[in-house]
Amino acid sequence: MRIDKLLANMGYGTRQEVKTLLKSGNVRINGNPEKSAKTHVNPEEDQVTVMGEEVEYRKYIYLMMNKPGDLISATEDAHDPTVIDILQPEDQVFDPFPVGRLDKDTEGLLLITNDGQLNHRLTSPKKDVGKTYFAIIDGKVTEEDVQIFAKGITLDDGYHTKPGKLVVLHSDEVSEIELTITEGKFHQVKRMFEAIGKEVTYLKRIMVGALELDEELDLGEYRELTDEEVEYLMNITNLDS
Which residue from 69, 56, 65, 116 is spatially nearest to 87, judged by alpha carbons? Predict the structure, then answer.
């Protein structure tokens, strides 16, 4: 990795600011001053210091966002702002991407990382990682619906979903529910309810596996996952199917 990219990724400034830092003579590689931005280093073997302080390299970034209902779950979009657009520059330099996707108008827990392997495992149906949603439904959700969801739902395109765990929190003309599914088909939650003649009017993801959305995060806010949370995600996705 080029030394300017390493330092930029570790938060020492933009590429241009890092070049200025290098020219100042305050960057050393294995004890030797380095002024060229093009010099390559092995961040896992070479010792890099800035003004005597060792640079602690990390390859991956793991974030939890409380996604608002006006952002696209993508790295870039020609028409709408994305979840990546609202990240701080020091996080954007890791080139992260959303894990799976939430519909534009869906709020809640969205994981963002640059760890492609973890992303693949978390989104693989073979791993059966549950995603739990809170939803407001136009229509009365009944115990019969709970049983129907438990057997899987046939969607409008003929696809039969895996079983979903439906919990009715409030049943009336407008109902409140929680639903846990292990797939991520296009508009799946909305289409599952459409299949039984009901409409989702509000949708929020609240859990991935047993990892809960941090209640202290307002819409549009995010934080890094703790080491324990990252370890949990690694463990549940490492389980053999």
Answer: 65
- Rounded-to-integer distance, Cα 112 and Cα 101, Å: 10
Dihedrals φ, ψ of 116, to 5°? -65, -35
Helix (H, G, I), strand (E, B) or coil at 114: coil
* Cα–Cα distance for residue pair 4/21, rounded to 1 Å: 9
Closest CA to 59 of 120, 3, 6: 6
Decide if 113 contacts 62 (C-beta within 8 A).
yes
Say how far residue 213 (Cα) sits from the centre of its chain. Answer: 11
Contacts of 130 (CB under 8 A, 6+ apart): 165, 180, 181, 182, 207, 208, 209
Residue 173's CB is within 10 A of a number of other CB atoms, namely: 8
User: What percent of the chain is modeled with pLDDT above 90?
Assistant: 80
Establish whether 103 is a catalytic residue: yes
Using only the alpha carbons of the chain, give its radius of gyration.
Answer: 22
Q: Find the mean pLDDT for residues 108-128.
A: 91
Q: Which of 46, 85, 103, 214 is catalytic?
A: 103
Q: Model confidence over 48-61: pLDDT tens digits?
A: 999 999 998 888 99
Would you state the pLDDT for residue 31? Answer: 95
Q: Which long-range contacts (CB under 8 A, 24 or more apart) does 38-44 make?
A: 38/2, 38/3, 38/4, 39/2, 39/3, 40/1, 40/2, 40/3, 41/1, 41/2, 41/3, 41/6, 42/1, 43/1, 43/6
First to last CA, the chain: 36
